[in-house]
Amino acid sequence: MIGKLLQVEFMKLKRKGIWFLVFLGPFGVVSLQMVNYGVRKEWFLHQGTYNWDYYVLNVSAITPFALILGIVILTSFMASIENETNTWKQMLALPITRWSVYLSKYTTLLFLLIIASSLLAIFSLLFGIYLDFQNDIPYVDIIRYSFYPLFAALPVLGLQLWISTVIQNQGLPITVGVIGVILAYMAYFIPDWLIWKWPSLDNQWNEPLLNVYWGLAVGIGIYFVGMIDFIRRDVK
Amino acid sequence: MEYIVETNRLTKRFGKELAVNGLDIKIPKGEIYGFLGPNGAGKTTTIRMLLGLMHPTSGTVKVFGKDLAKERIEILKQIGSLVENPSYYPHLTAYENLETIRKIYGAPMERINDVLTIVGLSDVAKKKVKGFSLGMKQRLGIAASLLNNPQLLILDEPTNGLDPSGIIEIRNLLKQLAAEYGITILISSHLLSEIDQIATSVGVISKGNLIFQDSIESMRLYSMRKILLKVNNSERAWHLLISRGVKADYEKEIISLSNMSDDDIAEVVRLLVENGYSIYRVEEEKRSLEDTFLQMTSEASGI
Amino acid sequence: MFTLFQAEWFKLRKTNILPILFTGPIVGILIGLFANTDMFPDEANQWTGLLLVMNLTYALLFLPLVTGILAATICRYEHQAGGWKQLLSLPVSREQVFVTKYFLLVFLILVIQLLYFLSFTSVGLVRGLTDTFPMAIVWKSIVGGWIATFPLAALQLWMSTMFKSFAASFSVNVIFTLPAILAINSAKFGPYYPWAQPFSMMYVGGDTTDVFFIPWEQLLTVVGGSFLVFFIGGYIYFKRKPI
User: Fold this and answer.
1) In CATH, what number is assigned to the domain containing residue B230?
2) What percent of chain C has pLDDT over 90?
3) Is residue B167 located within the same domain as residue B272?
């Protein structure tokens, strides 16, 4: 059943420009570095930081923040597809369980975000190769910095999906999202327990994997809270 | 009797407001059940509870003899529905819209073309629904409700936005579905004339209460036949009737008899003639169903 | 025109606008409290330092983004259930409707700016700042930031009349706002990028001899120019929009 529902979800994404956004996110992140390296190449050379490691760090500085924005936009898009003419009432009167509807929305979003993260890894690699650094390509780091933030951002994904499916007025989920974006932007100044900090992979123990574990654990927790609320609600 | 839909003290409360109050709806198999009530009477809320979209505050719903709270999925496999305003994805074509639903039912692909033909949308199958008129969207909604060859159709104001010829088409379609395939249909409306032309049984809801539920014939009977008699010496004639145990009313020189069969009336006339009264007129005061409906709902709101 | 404004205000009061307006001060307080005092420049007045740190995120990201959210909010109820066609079949011109919506939008942004001012002073008091309050500089920043959103507001109103979906107009907003992060680091590009102007106008470190923190020429050409382009664009679009 989930398989069929996923096919249906992807059908609904047609002509919505969502695939363009999935491309634009990672492309935007890398193109910021294109500008950065275009303008300041000499400076990097002068500082002795014109190398792969420093480049990967530069890319990853923007990733968390772009990721949170992407989550906010994509979840709101997914919810607005059903909210626009209230297709919830049509869909939920079909012989499917509500949890499978919620799960298929979540899975679709996760799939889109995995595509975006993969594109990010590819774009970072390609532009890095173009920059022609002297040291070896740190494949593992590139993959790590492309996917760790996604796992660490699962609580935010769960939260945004929850509020954008249960609140009709998309202004509110987007506002909550913007606050999250601001917090993600200030990641290094906010306390470790705030979920918006986690995608930055920064914590007081300097152990990025911790954020990934927290993200998975709390992400699953928030997912269930949202799903249970979604199941219990009356459909207007 | 086998009921396809049977609710028991079905109640829904929104905060302080009692939207639906202890409904006992009974819909026998193969009937077209007209669910009638003014706007805001609780029709849509009831229908949402029948489909499991809303959870009742109290009471139960049984469909096909199964408990909706326990076997929702099994029940919904056999139901086609259209709730309130049509729901559709504006950026998808009519065909694609139906495809999103067909996949979930697992119905065969050809079924999409079948239902599009049934509702007369084959020509615009490849057009985006964004540009459809309200009537076309409504037809699309009806098409969607037929995708799974349902045993029970639940249609909330299905003729909304349709032009007169469209209304007739849909009416004939529903009659045909009921007659040929034995599909049970619940159709809600705030217009009695519409229900009158299609339904075989009727439930009237007002302010959340079911105030009438029976066959359409009983409703017609209920609405008809107040017989007015004009005779000479009418007050004495009335006393005579009363003394012989006839239920009669007297007002302004006119004797009125309600809810009596033809034979009863013949008997009353014979009685008067045999006792030497001159009968000037025997008239039938016929209330339209519309009047009856209005009277029912206003009586109910008077309570 | 004024009655139209009153009608708009009435419609707005019934929506969830308050939570959105209060995000201004909330974000201000969050930034202000989380910010590290080490970031304050040593030599400057403490208040100026605080304002500098708070504006960094507020003006660069929050203000442009919230402008888009507000624009979409005041168009939301028109997109639902055929509000546009009802509104425009009243005896009002489309021009009046567009201009009224625009005034309402800028007014809301002003409210946000004032609430942000309150949160700024609260953060300062909580942190127990003792320096004299640099009234002139603070107001220059608050009002300057407001004026700098005029072109952004015009573009977002245009996008919000065009797209039904919040997500769509928000995406446009994000696509234009993010490059501002780079633009402000570039002396060449920064002064010309409209989405970087709220930051420049609120950036306390700028030239303090002028009325605002950016030169008059830049204010008139970049802010004024982009305002004209976006406002006229949106105005023409709305006049021709098939409802």
Assistant:
1) 3.30.70
2) 28
3) no
For the stretch B204-227, pLDDT in tens is 998 899 988 988 888 777 666 678
Give the residue from C136, C149, C155, C128 showing the smallest Cα distance to C232: C155
The mean pLDDT of A16-24, rounded to a whole number, is: 91
Distance CA B142, CA B189 (A): 15
Same domain, B7 and B73: yes
Backbone angles phi, psi at B235, to 5 degrees: -65, -40
Minimum mean pLDDT range among A207-211, A225-229, B232-236, C71-75: B232-236
Residues B163, B61: one domain? yes
pLDDT reported for residue C181 = 83
Burial class from Cβ neighbours inside 10 Å (0-12, 13-18, 19+) for residue A115 reads: middle
Judge whether B107 lies within some domain.
no
Select from B221, B244, B270 the last residue of a domain.
B221
Average pLDDT, chain A: 91
Instruction: Return phi, psi of residue B250, to 5°.
Output: -130, 130
User: Please, which pLDDT band fits residue C43 given cuts at 50, 70 and 90?
Assistant: low
Query: Which among A111, A213, A119 is positioned nearest to A157, based on CA atoms?
Result: A111
Which string of b and e fits B158-185 if b means at least 16 CB within 10 Å?
Answer: bbbbbeeebbebbbebbeebbeeeebbb
What mean pLDDT value characterizes chain C? 85
**Domain shared by B154 and B72, yes or no:** yes
Q: Extract the tokens encoding A127.
A: 């532009």
For range C91-101, the mean pLDDT: 87
The string of pLDDT tens digits covering residues B34-78 is 999 888 889 999 999 999 999 999 999 999 999 999 999 999 999
CA distances from C32 to A181, A190, B287, C123 (A): 16, 11, 75, 6
Pair of tokens at residue B207 = 């302010």
B277 and B211 fall within a common domain: no
Range of the domain at B40: 3-78+150-221
Q: Are B72 and B25 members of one domain?
A: yes
Residues of A with CB under 8 A from a CB of B: 4-5, 7-8, 11-12, 14-16, 81, 84-97, 232, 234-235
Comparing B267 with A58, the larger pLDDT belongs to A58
Residue C27 Cα, gap to closest chain A Cα (Å): 7
Enclosing H/E stretch for B79:
strand B79-82
CB-based contact B146:B118 (threshold 8 Å):
yes
Looking at residue B288, what is its pLDDT? 66
Asked whether residue B154 falls in the same domain as residue B244, the answer is no
Whether A4 contacts B103, CB under 8 Å: yes
Contact present, A138 and A56 (Cβ < 8 Å) = yes
Q: Please give the C-alpha separations between residue A234 and each of A88, A162, A194, B53, in angstroms, as whole numbers.
A: 11, 15, 31, 6
- Asked if residues C73 and A168 have their Cβ atoms less than 8 Å apart, the reply is no
Report residue B203 CA to chain centroid gap.
Answer: 6
pTM of the predicted structure, to 2 decimals: 0.85
For residue A52 the two structure tokens come to 């792969």
Please give the Cα distance from B261 to A96 (Å, whole number): 52
ipTM confidence: 0.83
Question: Which stretches of chain A sit within 8 Å of chain C by CB?
Answer: 17, 21, 24, 28, 32, 35-36, 39, 62, 66, 69, 72-74, 76-77, 80, 84, 169-172, 174-175, 178-179, 181-183, 185-186, 189-191
Total domain count, chain B: 2
Together in a domain, B181 and B235: no
B169, B194, B221 — which closes off a domain? B221
Is B22 contained in some domain?
yes
Res C205: pLDDT: 65
Q: Which DSSP state fits C132?
A: P
Query: Cβ of A5 and B104 within 8 Å?
Result: yes
Q: Which residues of B127-146 are buried (b: 16+ CB within 10 A; e: fewer)?
A: ebbeebeebbbbbbbbbbbb
